[in-house]
From TrEMBL:
<dbReference type="Pfam" id="PF03473">
    <property type="entry name" value="MOSC"/>
</dbReference>
<dbReference type="GO" id="GO:0030151">
    <property type="term" value="F:molybdenum ion binding"/>
</dbReference>
<dbReference type="InterPro" id="IPR052353">
    <property type="entry name" value="Benzoxazolinone_Detox_Enz"/>
</dbReference>
<dbReference type="InterPro" id="IPR005302">
    <property type="entry name" value="MoCF_Sase_C"/>
</dbReference>
<feature type="domain" description="MOSC">
    <location>
        <begin position="27"/>
        <end position="162"/>
    </location>
</feature>
<dbReference type="InterPro" id="IPR011037">
    <property type="entry name" value="Pyrv_Knase-like_insert_dom_sf"/>
</dbReference>
<dbReference type="GO" id="GO:0003824">
    <property type="term" value="F:catalytic activity"/>
</dbReference>
<dbReference type="GO" id="GO:0030170">
    <property type="term" value="F:pyridoxal phosphate binding"/>
</dbReference>
<protein>
    <submittedName>
        <fullName>MOSC domain-containing protein</fullName>
    </submittedName>
</protein>
Length: 208
């Protein structure tokens, strides 16, 4: 398991009216890139209402899922097209558990916090009809990460799974099926959850 690329914003682009500009245009960077609690050095966030919180410090997408989309759409999905900071190889991002901890390279440690929810900016970026709905139905959302330990990372760095919590709610599950029983088990565990994710899980758990 390794990092294929580390991506930061290339240039700000005009975005939907409500957000003005967007920093979704990410491109691979050479060399090592410092990682702070808010994400990668030299990266930007424009829509601070919906992005840029510590639990959204990094967005990661798997090369395997990008390859799947390339086949579905009949076009290349170069690293950074989805606005991801990290493109990985050999790591099951969709199957990662909420609260799972990874080490990136020798220094950086991150916590898996949430699936990415497609938005109007992503819709405009892709230029595909019904893109947000298709992305949701495909169940390959990628994941947001919280930085637990800062440092630097670079393309080629190995990824190690340091710990997995004792529940069954994966990124894919939370993005899709959302079974109340599994949510209750997760909530009863000692897993560290983003407050917004905990609130959603509590609503889902109350249904069953």
């Amino acid at each position: 398991m390794r990092l294929l690329t580390v991506n930061v914003v290339e240039e700000l682009l005009p975005g939907p009216k409500q957000t003005g500009f967007t920093a979704i245009d990410k491109r691979p960077q050479p060399g090592r890139v410092p990682v702070g609690e808010r994400g990668l050095a030299r990266d930007r966030v424009c829509d601070t209402k919906n992005h840029g919180r510590p639990d959204q410090a990094l967005y990661v997408y798997a090369e395997e899922d990008a390859d799947w989309w390339a086949g579905e759409l009949g076009r290349e999905i170069p690293s950074g097209l989805f606005g991801e900071n990290l493109r990985t190889e050999g790591l099951d991002v969709t199957g990662a558990l909420l609260g799972e901890v990874w080490r990136l390279g020798d220094e950086v440690e991150v916590l898996v916090t949430a699936p990415r929810i497609p938005c109007i900016t992503f819709q405009e970026r892709m230029g595909e009809q019904r893109w947000a709905k298709r992305f949701h139905q495909a169940g390959r959302p990628g994941a947001y990460l919280r930085v637990l330990r800062t440092g630097s990372i670079a393309a080629g760095d190995e990824i190690e799974i340091l710990s997995r919590p004792d529940h069954e709610v994966t990124i894919g599950h939370f993005f899709g099926a959302q079974e109340p029983a599994k949510m209750r088990v997760m909530l009863d565990s000692e897993v560290l959850l983003w407050d917004e994710i905990r609130a959603v899980a509590e609503r889902i758990a109350s249904r069953g």
